[in-house]
């Protein structure tokens, strides 16, 4: 990936043209090689950028404008199609560079397995770090159909790396009996079905902590975001997810980076999924990049 010039294709609205002068870096991870239902999230990062042109650059929620944050859009990491192991290594190398340069990494997926190498690099960089996971699915399996590198496994891997007591999961409404048992008994902070209200209660325990945030778009009800690979009925509204982002923006936590994953544009010709994703990115940039 280039770090010295603007991405040659479509960039997220109002992106800064130079990496070195930027505080934050947007990057895409176009990988959907291990999904268990429908592929297509590898096209998510590009389409989120494309629909961002329809956004206002001003956030009335935060009273901030995108011109107040310098962020560089590095484009998509060129991942070898069908090779998840090599792809994860390339993601790790990219994020390691961004963190070493003191910049705020904001990743766009891609399937949820792409979060795993990011968590490893964040842990390597900061050591004492916590994870907030917002998702419809627990993602607490050891393997899926015999494969440990699966979009169903990244949060279990995170629990093993960070310690379950440092992992906070919100909005979960799908998983095996064993996953829910682990969530409730392992020591992790496990909040099924809702996001904003339990997040309010949990944030005091994270005061002063470094936090990485991973958001799977399928935490939203399919009425708000049908464009995803494994949609689950009974989810939250886009308004509640925005509320969660704003709660984190105002909280006494240091967010060291986020990712937004599992946007699959092919399943949403209305573009509502991509549009809400772009708005979420705007609010993360304005609320979380200090």
From TrEMBL:
The EC number(s) this enzyme carries: 3.5.3.11
InterPro entries: Agmatinase-rel, Ureohydrolase, Ureohydrolase_dom_sf, Ureohydrolase_Mn_BS
Pathway(s) served: Amine and polyamine biosynthesis; putrescine biosynthesis via agmatine pathway; putrescine from agmatine: step 1/1
PROSITE patterns, alphabetized: ARGINASE_1 (PS01053), ARGINASE_2 (PS51409)
Alphabetical UniProt keywords: Hydrolase, Manganese, Metal-binding, Polyamine biosynthesis, Putrescine biosynthesis, Spermidine biosynthesis
Gene Ontology terms, MF aspect: agmatinase activity; metal ion binding
Binding site for Mn(2+): 112, 135, 137, 139, 216, 218
Cofactor binding mode and count: Binds 2 manganese ions per subunit.
Cofactor: Mn(2+)
NCBIfam families: agmatinase
Its biological purpose: Catalyzes the formation of putrescine from agmatine.
Protein name as catalogued: Agmatinase
The species this protein was found in: Caldalkalibacillus thermarum (strain TA2.A1)
Gene: speB
